[in-house]
Write a structure and sequence with these properties.
The longest helix is centred in the N-terminal third of the chain and has 17 residues, at about 100-115. Helix 12 packs antiparallel against helix 13 and helix 13 (about 320-325) packs across helix 15. The strands form 2 sheets. The protein has a 9-stranded parallel sheet with strand order 13-12-11-10-9-8-7-6-14. Strands 1, 2, 3, 4, 5, 15, 16 and 17 form an 8-stranded mixed sheet that branches. The two termini are about 25 Å apart. Helix content is about 35%, strand content about 25%. The protein is globular and about 65 Å long. By secondary structure, it is of the alpha/beta class.
Length: about 400
């Protein structure tokens, strides 16, 4: 007979509405949540004490390949840091041997897990070899890794298409650097041939690229990217409001990376405008070389940035921000049936926040504390499918 476990805690963040339930039990069987409420008769009791149980984070956009290059390029513009072929990142990757690179990737994934991230979407450079390295690095780690591969940027459409087909044999989709990277006809053909793969693109990240698109094509990068039928659009730092409405109408998910945009001097994404336009958004930590995979810091930065940017303390909702780091990320990666919130039928995967921590002492709103005050050091334990990871 399969064992049932009741995890007792002072408070639990439950359901897609992210409500806080006090003095409750999360009841799990076979790695899944059976119910949340009273402990079940006959269940094994795991008393977690004065703690807050929270869904684990989803990092909807990252670059794990440059884990070994932390702090390289700080103070330099986007083009000098991450744009191929001569950006610092790509020169760094070119020097790495395969074994060292795999070690870096493994470290990055473990760092994510320790920070409460249960799934991530990695824009994986270096073609099929890069995807294989990521798969190997993830072996033995209980994190869901979505490998979004990338082809070499050449003028040969046939070579681009051929490499993409090889990537799709082992990857979850494509993570395209820029709408200018490949001929639109090639991406449209791949989209039609591989409808179940995730197609994700960086768009409107810099003011210069957005201005060039408007001048050359009469529309922004975001509008042009929508013509490729993507699943995810990343950054949208300079997307005009008219094109945000198009994103919402197309029901395409957006990912913001506020700390990355800030440190690179690209500008600040107006996520409040995204919300007003009806765009569903999640959060990504972007390049490991410039931002730690720390969703607490991402949420806090985003919240304060939007309220200050608009000079309006109500410019964005705290619950929306927490949802962006959890549930909306799961929806963006199409895994909300398993992760993103704590509800019956989903995985019994959660983090245990220490309510004895100074960050939670005298707190009146736990959700606000998660967004504005909590830190990775407040994570006491992590359970994945009902088993203790940390």
């Amino acid at each position: 007979m399969t064992k049932t476990t009741s995890f007792l805690a002072s408070s639990i963040i439950i359901g897609d509405e992210l409500q806080v339930l006090n003095q409750a039990a999360l009841n799990a069987v076979a790695g899944r949540i059976l119910s949340i409420g009273a402990p079940l008769p006959g269940a094994e009791i795991v008393d977690l004490g004065h703690a807050l149980l929270s869904p684990l984070f989803i990092d909807a956009h990252c670059h794990l390949g440059d884990t070994g290059a932390k702090e390289i390029g700080i103070g330099l513009p986007l083009e000098d840091v991450v744009v191929p072929p001569h950006g610092l990142k790509h020169r760094f990757l070119a020097r790495l041997d395969a074994e060292t690179h795999q070690q870096h990737l493994h470290h990055g994934l473990k760092e994510m897990l320790d920070n409460g991230i249960i799934a991530c979407a990695d824009f994986r450079e270096q073609g099929p070899a890069g995807v294989k390295a990521l798969r190997a690095a993830a072996q033995g780690l209980p994190i869901r890794v979505f490998a979004l591969g990338r082809m070499a940027e050449t003028d040969n459409a046939a070579d681009i298409y051929s490499e993409a087909v090889e990537i799709f044999k082992i990857a979850d989709g494509l993570g395209i650097r820029d709408v200018e990277s490949y001929p639109a006809a090639v991406i449209k053909e791949l989209r039609a041939q591989f409808p179940d793969k995730i197609f994700a693109l960086h768009v409107s990240e810099s003011a210069a690229s957005e201005k060039a698109s408007q001048q050359t094509y009469g529309r922004g990068q975001t509008a042009r990217a929508l013509e490729l039928s993507p699943d995810l659009l990343v950054h949208l730092t300079h997307t005009p409001s008219s094109e945000l409405a198009q994103v919402a109408a197309a029901r395409v998910k957006a990912v913001c990376c506020p700390r990355s945009n800030g440190i690179l001097g690209d500008g600040l994404p107006d996520v409040s405008a995204w919300v007003q336009a009806g765009v569903d958004f999640s959060i990504g930590s972007d390049n490991m070389m410039i931002s730690s995979p720390d969703m607490f810091r991402e949420m806090d930065y985003l919240s304060r940035m939007m309220r200050g940017y608009h000079q309006d303390p109500a410019a964005i909702d705290t619950c929306q921000i927490f949802s962006a780091a959890t549930l909306q990320g799961a929806r963006a990666l199409k895994i909300a049936q398993d992760l993103g919130s704590l509800a019956p039928g989903k995985e019994a995967s959660f983090m245990v926040l220490d309510l004895e921590s100074p960050n939670f002492q005298y707190v009146n709103d736990y959700l606000s504390a998660m967004v504005h005050r909590a830190a990775t050091s407040d994570i006491r334990n992590i359970f994945i499918k009902g088993e203790k990871y940390k």
